[in-house]
Write a structure and sequence with these properties.
Blueprint (H helix, E strand, L loop, with lengths): L3 E2 L10 H13 L9 H20 L7 E4 L2 H15 L6 E5 L4 H12 L3 E5 L9 H7 L4 E5 L13 H7 L6 E5 L11 H4 L3 E5 L10 E5 L14 H4 L7 H38 L5 E2 L10 E5 L5 H10 L2 E2 L5 E3 L2 E3 L2 H7 L5 H4 E5 L6 H19 L1
Parallel strand pairs: 1-11, 3-4, 3-5, 5-6, 6-7
Antiparallel strand pairs: 2-8, 7-8, 9-10, 10-14, 12-13
Helix pairs in contact: 1-9, 2-9, 3-4, 9-13
Length: 380
């Protein structure tokens, strides 16, 4: 039985071209990029070239790119770095109630450090209201953090409108774009964000690498102490093989993004059409006219997340849920709880399916048929 991977929003398989690009670097380029000798210079060339490519991909300057260990570190650096650097101007931060935990948990920690955090709600379609943001904005607000694409539902947030609202305000705008990068055109000149998070393993690159874009002039302090790497903003010897893999993944992304989006749009349609043909009961979470092509979040009435995911796995299908399963109990998805209320069955019967490199029409159709058989069997 073929295993079918429908969890690309969690992580993606590395592209074979990325692996090929990394291998000679791991074998031959062992120098420290901070060293002045030829071995160090060889590593430095890779680092500099990769930074240029990363910056170009979002229409930024190379000096505005900080390589990190991934999205979580980048989100943490964005929140802690700007909060502590600007606390003399105010200690109020605004984020949303549906952020990735890398942002939410950082915000919660900042509350213990004396900062006040406002968490914007979302409507039943999974979107924040810019009017709510305007209402909560204060003179002492120093940072607004709103993810561009939600990792559970794929719903796109109004980042441009948020930036426009903040145009004449002191607050910086940060956006976690881990799920958006690769699915949407990201141009920092148009979006007018001040900080932006990207992760390598969500775009068929290696794990353990990402970057934080920091607009020139943004007041940011480092949260990691040691050497003077990344222009003194992120200490630690850079992971050159991962940087090289990230570079190659970004290049491939630029070449394939439009075709990929068309492919994922088609896969999502055929996946849902097959579920409908199988006559099972399901509902979609989030406004489907305002989601990325690669993610669909499906509620199966009368079902249970743990039971579904276990049976999916036994049938060779990999998917996931925002619900946290521990010791036989389910902690409801915080995203769906905000959308539908904490008592809604959707918080514990919904599954996220996400498409990517490992998918084509045939295995997506086969996955939908297996899923339908499981739902029918569990409904009896």
């Amino acid at each position: 039985m073929e295993s079918i991977y429908l969890d690309h929003a969690a992580t993606t398989p590395m592209h074979e071209i990325v692996v090929e690009a990394m291998l000679p670097v791991m074998q031959e380029v062992f120098g420290n990029p901070s060293s002045v000798h030829q071995f160090g210079r060889k590593a430095r060339r890779i680092l500099d070239e990769s930074r240029q490519i990363a910056a170009k991909s979002i229409h930024a300057r190379e000096t505005e790119i900080i390589f990190t260990s991934g999205g979580t570190e980048a989100d943490n650096l964005a929140l802690f770095g700007t909060a502590f650097a600007n606390q003399e101007k105010g200690k109020h931060i605004i984020t949303t109630s549906i952020e990735h935990h890398a942002t939410l948990h950082a915000a919660k920690h900042l509350e213990t450090e004396g900062f006040e955090v406002t968490y914007l709600p979302v409507d039943e379609w999974g979107r924040i209201s810019v009017e709510d943001l305007a209402r909560e904005l204060r003179e002492d607000t120093i940072l607004v953090s709103v993810m561009m694409v939600n990792n559970e539902t794929g719903v796109i947030q109004p980042i441009r409108e948020c930036a426009e609202l903040l145009r004449d305000h002191q607050a910086y705008l940060h956006s976690d774009m881990v799920q958006a990068y690769g699915q949407l055109e990201v141009n920092v000149q148009e979006l007018q964000v001040d900080l932006l998070t990207v992760s390598g393993h969500k775009i068929n690159g290696p794990k353990g690498i990402g970057f934080l874009y920091v607009r020139e002039g943004t007041n940011l302090v480092n949260i990691q102490h040691g050497g003077e790497q990344e222009r003194k903003r992120r200490a630690g010897t850079e992971n050159i093989p991962a940087v090289k893999g990230f570079q190659k993944a970004i290049v491939l992304l630029g070449e394939e993004r439009i075709n990929n989006v068309e492919k994922y749009t088609s896969l999502k349609k055929v996946f849902l059409a097959t579920l409908e043909e199988e006559s099972i009961d399901f509902q979609l979470n989030g406004n489907q006219n305002n989601t990325v092509a690669s993610i669909v979040n499906v509620s199966f009435p009368g079902m249970n997340v743990e039971q579904l995911l276990t049976n999916f796995d036994l049938s060779g299908i990999a998917a996931s849920s925002g619900s946290a399963c521990t010791a036989g109990s389910v902690e409801p998805s915080h995203v769906l709880s905000e959308m539908y209320g904490p008592d809604s069955d959707r918080t514990t019967n919904s599954i996220r399916f996400s498409f990517g490199l490992a998918n084509q029409r045939d295995n997506v159709v086969e996955a939908a048929r297996r899923i339908s058989q499981i739902v029918k069997r569990l409904s009896v």
